[in-house]
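lol ok so funny story. i was supposed to be doing the assay writeup but got distracted and ended up predicting the structure for this chain instead. priorities right. anyway since i did it might as well share w the group, maybe its usefull for someone
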Amino acid sequence: MYGCCCCLKSPPSSSLFPLKLQERIFKSPNLVVCAHKSRVDKLVNIDQSVSDDSAKGSGTTARGRRLLRVREEKRKREHERLHTYPQWAKVLEDACKHDSELRAVLGDSVGNPDLMRQRVEQRFRQKGRTDFYKSKSGSVVTFKVSFRDFNPLDSYIWIELYGSPSDRDVDLIGSVIQSWYVMGRLGAFNSSNLQLASSSMEYDPLYDADRGFQVMPSSFHDIGDVEFQDNWGRFWVDLGTTDFLAIDVLLNCLTVLSSEYVGIQQVVFGGHKIGDWEEGMTSQEDGYKYFKI
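and the output, tada:
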């Protein structure tokens, strides 16, 4: 059998075969198969080698392309998060750095605005709308004041609340007592120098600084930490040379504190054991809390 019929019908292109080879092909048809097939095989092999080289040159595999696609999608998500992240979510994240209560509410939802919104709404429902919008958290009832063998140099002052105080309540009450002590330590409660107490500001009163400097000093000597066992609190005082004006100032402070923030049931000056106070019980599990002064 002779070679390819297509080669017999028309002479091969000069771009494929030299002229002398073309003459041999038509003179000897048996050579058409060998010559033409050999040339075509070479062209096919060249094309395959080029394809293989181009595949190798890209340096990518199916796994590599998949990883590139995953990284690109991650980069797009990060870009969208940075440029479309709600402003209120950023504010909450910044607030969490300084607010432990808010940090506990959000938990692991930071970075996910939808989940953050759900956590806040859930907290809002649990807490109740009235608690969020209530302007005052104290008591509308005035507290009772009593004295029990009060020694200004060595006595406890007791405070009874309507319930066990929160950490915020303890800090608030302790801060008031601490401020009261600092003012007394600096001689603020000196009734010997009340030059402006009965003066009228309408006539530009004069203050005698020399007189204020020459009066007998009045100083608060010492005070103990503010302690709480359940709803009872106490702190030890040594008023020193401070006048009883200090007691009036303290009661004025506690009156506003009770009506605006923390409800106080009664204040007792003196006494060794009030309510169910137990000496030595300093475990937080038993309801003990304190404020360091």
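The longest strand covers residues 155-161. Confidence is low (pLDDT under 50) at residues 1-16, 28-37, 53-57, 129-134.
back to the writeup now i swear
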